[in-house]
Fold Copper outer membrane regulator.
Amino acid sequence: MARPREFDIDQAIDGAMEIFWRQGFKATNMPYLLMAMGLTRGSFYKAFEDKESVYFKTLEHYDEKVVTTTVAMLEGCTAAKASDCLMPLFSQSPKSGYGCFICNAMVEVAPENPKVAEKTQDMAQRLKTAIKTVLDKRNVGSSSAQRADLADVILHLYFGFQAMGKSGWPHEDWSERLKRLLEETAPA
Amino acid sequence: MARPREFDIDQAIDGAMEIFWRQGFKATNMPYLLMAMGLTRGSFYKAFEDKESVYFKTLEHYDEKVVTTTVAMLEGCTAAKASDCLMPLFSQSPKSGYGCFICNAMVEVAPENPKVAEKTQDMAQRLKTAIKTVLDKRNVGSSSAQRADLADVILHLYFGFQAMGKSGWPHEDWSERLKRLLEETAPA
DNA sequence: CTCGTTAGGAACCGCTTGGTCCCTAATGAA
DNA sequence: TTCATTAGGGACCAAGCGGTTCCTAACGAG
C-alpha cells in the first residue's frame, strides 16, 4: 500500500490529554500540543482534523482511561465502609495540581461547546452512578432515593474539591467528613 | 488642568467584570473587552495598565460587589434555620449560566497566576467564615470545630455546584439536602 | 483668549495563532 | 524494479492577538 504511520495514535492522544488536562484548551497552543504529542504539524493534520477535535478525543481518552478505572474501583470496592471506598476521590492524585479533567472542561470549554458539555455530564453521571452503587451495596441511609441524593451531594463535593484545589486551597483530611456525611459514626 | 475623563472607571470595571465572568480571561479579547467597558483602546490604555491588571481589578470589584453582599446577607440572616440562610448559595442567580466568578477564576486563571490564586482563596475564605457564622449563631452540631468542618463542606459543595452548573448539569432542589446535612430534620 | 495638559480614537505594530501547502521519504503491491 | 500511495516535516499563510503611537478634541488655569 503506502508508507505506514510512524507513531501510535493512542499514545499521541495520551500526550495530548496530559497537556490539555494540565493547561486547558485555550492555553495550549499548537507548538506545545505537537510537542506533547510527539509529532509535527504535517503528521498531526494528516491524522487528525484539528485542535478542537483532538481535545474531544482526549476527553474520550480520559473517559476510557480514568473514569472507567475509577468507576471499576468504586464498584469493585470490598471495604466494609462506604467512606473507605469513596476516600480516593478526595485525596491528591499523582496528577495533583492538574485538577480533574472533567471539572476543567466543564468550567472552561463546556459553556461554549455543547458536545463537550454533554460528554462531561455523561462522565459525571457515570461517576455518580458508581458512587450510588457503593452506597447501595452497603445500605447507607434509609432509601434508594436518599442514597441517590447523597451520591449527588458527594459528586458535587468532589467537583468542588477539584475546582478549589486548582487555586491551591489546602487539602483537608476528608475521611472524617465522609464518615459523618454517611452517618458511619454517631454525630457527637 | 486638562480634559476630564468622559467615562466612569467603576462603571467600566463593572462592564469588564461582566464579560470576564461570562467568558473567562483568555476567551475575552480586547475588542470584546473594550465594547463591554464602553471605551476605545486609547482610553483603555490611558486609564489602565493592561488586560491582565484589569482582570484582577474585576476580581476586586466582584469582591466588593458580590462577595461582600453575600457575606452580609449570610451574617445578617435572621431565619431560624441555617439551611434557609444558606439556600441562596444553591439557587440559580440572576447571572445563572455565568457560574461563580471565583470558581471560574480558580480553575482557569489561578494555576498560572499566584496573585489571582491568593485573591480567590481569600474570597472563598471569607465566604467560609460567613457560613461558619451562620452555623455558630444557630448552634448547629456539637462543637465549633465541627461547625468549621461543616462550613468547609458547604463551601466545597457550593463550588462544585457552580462548576457543574457551567456544563448545564440540572439544578436539583438543595433545600432538603442542606437540612439533612445540618441535621435539621431527623435522618429518616 | 491662550496655552499646557490630558482624554479620545484610529491607524499601526510585531508577534502569535491555528491551519495549509508542497516537497521528500518510506512503504508495499504488482 | 517500478509506481501509486501515504507519512513526515519545514515553509508558508491570512487572521487575530495585545499593545503602542500619534494626532486631534476638549477642557481648566492663567
Summary: Chain B has a mean pLDDT of 94. Chain B touches chain A through 48 residues (CB under 8 Å). Chain B has one domain: 9-181.
